[in-house]
Amino acid sequence: MPALPLARIPPFHRLLTLPLLGLLLAAGTANAQSRLPPEVNAALARAKVPAEALAVLVVDVDGRAPARLSHRTGVPMNPASVMKLVTTFAALDTLGPNYTWTTPVYVEGTARNGTLYGNVYIKGQGDPKLVMERLWLLLRRVQGLDIKTIAGDIVLDRSAFEVAAPDPGEFDGERLRPYNAAPDALLLNYKSVVMTFVPDRSANAAHVSFDPPLAGVQLQTHVPLIETDCGDYRAALRADLTDPARIRFAGRYPANCGEKVWPLAYADPASYAVRAVEGMWREMGGQLQGRVREGTVPAGLAPAFELASPALAEVIRDVNKYSNNVMAQQLFLTLSLAQKGIGSFAASREVLQGWWKERFGADDLPVLDNGSGLSRNERISAQALAKLLQHVWRSPLLPELASSLPITGVDGTLRRVRNRAQGSAHLKTGSLRDVTAVAGFVDGRSGRRYVLVAMANHANASAARPAIEALIEWTVNDQ
Question: Which CATH superfamily does the domain covering 101-309 fall into?
Answer without folding.
Answer: D-Ala-D-Ala carboxypeptidase C, peptidase S13 (3.50.80.20)
